[in-house]
Write a structure and sequence with these properties.
The complex is a heterodimer of chains A (111) and B (113). Chain A is mainly β and 111 residues long. Chain A contains no helices and eleven strands. Chain B has 113 residues and is mostly beta strands. Chain B contains no helices and eleven strands. The radius of gyration of chain B is 13 Å and the shape is globular. The chains are: A mainly beta (111), B mainly beta (113).
C-alpha cells in the first residue's frame, strides 16, 4: 500500500526562524511531489512542486527531494505568524494517477 | 477564472438520509477527484475521473457511496443511507491534462446526526 508519512507536530518556531518539515514515501516509482498548505477551515492550496532530486527555491520556500532515500522536505525561511497552518505532503506515483497525501504537519509560528 | 465550486458548503442531516454533494471543476480540466478529510485519517482519495470516466474508485468506503460525472462540468457524490461515521469534510479537486497540480474546491462539511 502506497503511504506518505509526516510528523503530525505541532512544530513550533519563533518568528524569523527556519521551519523544517519532512515527509517520507513508500512507493519507489513516485515521480511528482507536492507541498500543500491548509489553513484551519480552508481547502489545501499548492505552494511547491518538485520533480527532480535536489533543491527548488521559491521565495522563502525551498523544497528538497532525495529519491534514493524516498524523502521530501520543505524549508520555510524567515517564518511569519501567517505561515501557521497545516502542511500536507503529496506524492503522485504514475502518470494519470491521483495524489496521495500525508496527514500533514501543523506549524505554529509565534511572534 | 472561477475555481472549483462545491455545494452545499455545509450539510447537516440525520442518519439514514440520502446526501448529495456537488462539484463543478475548473473549465478545461479533464480530471476530477473526490477526497474526504477527517482528523483521524487525514485526506483520503475516494474516487477520481478522467474525461468523465471513473478510473479508480478503490477508495470508496462501501456501497453506500456512489459518484457520477455526467459531463465535463459536473460531478456528484452521493451517500445513501448516511451514517454518523460519514461526518467529514468532502473536497472536490480538478486537474488540467497538462500538469500534475490538483486544485481544490472549498469543501463541503457534512455532519450526520
Amino acid at each position: 500500500q502506497k503511504e506518505v508519512e509526516q510528523n503530525s507536530g505541532p512544530l513550533s518556531v519563533p518568528e524569523g526562524a527556519i521551519a523544517s518539515l519532512n515527509c517520507t514515501y513508500s512507493d519507489r516509482v513516485s515521480q511528482s511531489f507536492f507541498w500543500y498548505r491548509q489553513y484551519s477551515g480552508k481547502s489545501p492550496e499548492l505552494i511547491m512542486s518538485i520533480y527532480s532530486n535536489g533543491d527548488k527555491e521559491d521565495g522563502r520556500f525551498t523544497a528538497q527531494l532525495n529519491k534514493a532515500s524516498q524523502y521530501v522536505s520543505l524549508l520555510i525561511r524567515d517564518s511569519q505568524p501567517s505561515d501557521s497552518a497545516t502542511y500536507l505532503c503529496a506524492v503522485k506515483s504514475q502518470a494519470g494517477t491521483a495524489l496521495i497525501f500525508g496527514k500533514g504537519t501543523t506549524l505554529s509560528v509565534s511572534s | 477564472d472561477a475555481g472549483v465550486i462545491q455545494s452545499p458548503r455545509h450539510e447537516v442531516t440525520e442518519m439514514g438520509q440520502e446526501v448529495t454533494l456537488r462539484c463543478k471543476p475548473i473549465s478545461g480540466h479533464n480530471s476530477l477527484f473526490w477526497y474526504r478529510q477527517t482528523m483521524m485519517r487525514g485526506l483520503e482519495l475516494l474516487i477520481y475521473f478522467n474525461n468523465n470516466v471513473p478510473i479508480d474508485d478503490s477508495g470508496m468506503p462501501e456501497d453506500r457511496f456512489s459518484a457520477k460525472m455526467p459531463n465535463a462540468s459536473f460531478s456528484t457524490l452521493k451517500i445513501q443511507p448516511s451514517e454518523p461515521r460519514d461526518s467529514a469534510v468532502y473536497f472536490c479537486a480538478s486537474r488540467p491534462g497538462s500538469t500534475d497540480t490538483q486544485y481544490f474546491g472549498p469543501g463541503t462539511r457534512l455532519t450526520v446526526l
